[in-house]
Amino acid sequence: MLIRPRRNRKSDATRSLLRENYLMPEQLVYPLFLMDGKKIKSEVTSLPGNFRWSLDMLLPEIEACMELGLKSFILFPSIDQKFKDKTGTHGYSQGNYYLKVTSEIKKRFPEACLISDVALDPYNSDGHDGVVRNGKVDNDETLPILGKMAVAQAQAGFDIIGPSDMMDGRVGYIRQTMDAEGYTDTGIMAYTAKYASAFYGPFRDALDSAPVEGADIPKDKKTYQMDPANKKEALREAMLDYEEGADFMMVKPALNYLDVIHLLNENFDVPIAAYHVSGECAMLIAACQNGWLDFDKAMPETLLSIHRAGAQVILTYFAKQYAEMWKECCGDFS
Ligand code: PBG
Asked: Is residue 156 classed as helix, strand or coil in its secondary structure?
């Protein structure tokens, strides 16, 4: 035999020398759930190890992450029922604590990268990402609201705006609205191929943001989020977001859509991100809690697979644990 692939795997040294992909903590984005108030650190039951934080409790957590080399955070607000209405006006109201908390975090950690979420669902009494009219989610009535939310977030100090709503034309609309207000340096991470997935459950528990049941309210998000059966359609969404000025593009969820991550990475010259969503993380946590899988091995393997598929950036609830482990082993998880 002339060729023996096993020679390259014979020792730790050769394996690490020839390892094709490394995923650094800097490439991760840590999703954090916020709550208004003080001294709150309330665990999300369906996503153990993840919490809804009040600002005072969150600041030391962010500091600990930064020390581990984890510098990017995506922030999601849990909004009191009394602030919800049909058009999500609280999303851009000056009284919205999400905006104030962001300004405080930015003041304390100017070197952190803060990413927002733009969609109506936390603020909408119908629980949808857009305005519900006559039983339908109205695309064009939603756009100006998203534009106002984005401007308010840019003003609050977010570095990158994250439209997660899947309305048509929203990336371009947000880009133009922000530019007109002078926020030309605020980036856009587009949720480009966001699927109508069953894996968002724990997230909706955390924020109480699921579609509300009602006669004239669509029961799911299938008229705007993508059909899990579709791949070519992801290229179409990507072409639009690219042309509308997205700085980078995201696929969501990650694990069940590795082919889509690969496809977009092959076809576009902007960075591709993947959102390793709440349900995907919850599955792994549950199996490890049962003793069926070894977390310290299964978790890094999972994140590496998403990276290898073509995601340069990964949003994951395991970001902090990964960074802690990285510190110990410098990327050799074997
Ligand atoms: C809201 C939004 C969702 C997630 C991120 N932004 C839920 C949804 O679309 O219903 C899900 C993230 C996760 O499950 O971790 N627009």
From this structure: helix
Res 133: pLDDT:
95
Q: Which amino acid is at 322?
A: Y
Cβ of 204 closer than 6 Å to ligand 1, yes or no, is yes
Give catalytic status of residue 252 as yes or no: yes
- The domains of the chain, with CATH numbers, are 23-329 (3.20.20.70)
Ligand 1 centroid – CA 204 distance (Å)? 7
Whether 194 sits among the annotated catalytic residues: the reply is yes
Tokens of 177: 């609205």
Residues 6+ apart with CB under 8 A from 113: 71, 72, 73, 159, 160
Per-residue pLDDT reduced to its tens digit, 225-244: 999 999 999 999 999 999 99
Contact predicate 164/190, CB 8 Å = no
Indicate whether 210 pLDDT > 90. no
Helix (H) or strand (E) holding 274: strand 272-276
CA 140 to mean position of chain CA atoms: 24
Other Cβ atoms within 10 Å of 328 Cβ, number: 9
The residue whose CA has the least distance to atom 5 of ligand 1 is 164
How long, in residues, is the chain? 334
Question: In angstroms, how far apart are the furthest CA atoms of the chain?
Answer: 73
Residue 333 has pLDDT above 90, yes or no: no
At 85-134, the pLDDT tens digits run 999 999 999 999 999 999 999 999 999 999 999 999 999 999 999 999 99
**Would you say 194 and 225 are in contact if contact means Cβ atoms under 8 Å apart?**
yes
Confidence of residue 82 (pLDDT cuts 50, 70, 90): very high
Task: Please enumerate in sequence order all residues whose Cβ is within 8 A of that of 179, keeping only pairs 6 or more positions apart, or say none.
Answer: none
Q: What is the gyration radius of the CA atoms in the chain, in angstroms?
A: 20
Peptide bond into 253 cis (omega under 30): yes
293's CB contacts (< 8 A; 6+ apart) are 284, 287
